[in-house]
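Tokens for chain A. Residues wanted.
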């Protein structure tokens, strides 16, 4: 069993009957979703709220019942992957392009669990280029403002065209090299008018499930 599968499946232990679950996006949480699909077949009753169209389709294939914000008051638990995790459990997310819905769902969740293989654990955030979701209108100006904050924005591409998010926006992947104050940067980025959201998740993760050299499963918790 690979690392992603181990940590992904472990997160399913936190899921209880009757819960509303935020369903993350990516290759690690894929294993959580697969496990949840099996548990649902065995009688577990949950409702999932997906963070992307990709996850929505996967959840349907796995037989996980879905819901929407129209139908619920709260999310009990959200489970998602990350691109980087620092010792304070601050994150970079959005490598899969789903950062906006991921952040809306993580914020709405009573508990937010992150599943991450050991390569995601870093001392300082910033080696992974920070995804910033922007509206197409005025993106040239938005790029300039991102550069003024110290980033090197690259417009994300897919099949030779600008990558479009599920929300119809573009993504600038912004190399900052070292992000020493993620809290301030998260706020500064979102003050740029053309920025919809950025991939810094500061103070949001309650539990991070990973592996380390000494323990099979390492659970870092904020609570
Ligand atoms: C998608 C994300 C993912 O959670 C992140 O990219 C990690 O993905 P993976 O588990 O495939 O490494 O933020 O927008």
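Reply:
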């Amino acid at each position: 069993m690979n690392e992603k599968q181990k940590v992904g499946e472990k997160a399913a232990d936190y899921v209880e009957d009757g819960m509303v679950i935020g369903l993350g996006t990516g290759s690690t949480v894929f294993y959580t979703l697969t496990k949840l699909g099996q548990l649902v077949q065995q009688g577990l009753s949950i409702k999932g709220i997906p963070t992307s169209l990709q996850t929505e389709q996967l959840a349907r294939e796995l037989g996980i019942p879905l819901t929407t914000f129209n139908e619920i008051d709260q999310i009990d638990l959200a489970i998602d992957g990350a691109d980087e995790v620092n010792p304070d459990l601050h994150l970079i997310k959005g490598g899969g392009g789903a950062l906006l819905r991921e952040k809306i769902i993580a914020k709405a969740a009573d508990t937010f669990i992150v599943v991450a293989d050991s390569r995601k654990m870093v001392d300082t955030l910033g080696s992974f280029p920070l995804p910033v979701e922007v509206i197409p209108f005025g993106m040239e100006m938005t790029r300039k403002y991102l550069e003024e904050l110290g980033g090197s924005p690259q417009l994300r591409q897919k099949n030779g065209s600008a990558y479009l998010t599920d929300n119809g926006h573009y993504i600038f992947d912004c190399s900052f090299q070292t992000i020493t104050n993620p809290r301030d940067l998260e706020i500064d980025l979102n003050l740029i008018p053309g920025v919809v959201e950025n991939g810094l998740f500061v103070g949001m993760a309650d539990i991070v499930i990973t592996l380390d050299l000494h323990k099979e499963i390492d659970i870092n918790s904020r609570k």
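Residues 29-41 form the longest helix (13 residues). The domain at 130-195 is CATH 3.30.70.260 (Alpha-Beta Plaits).
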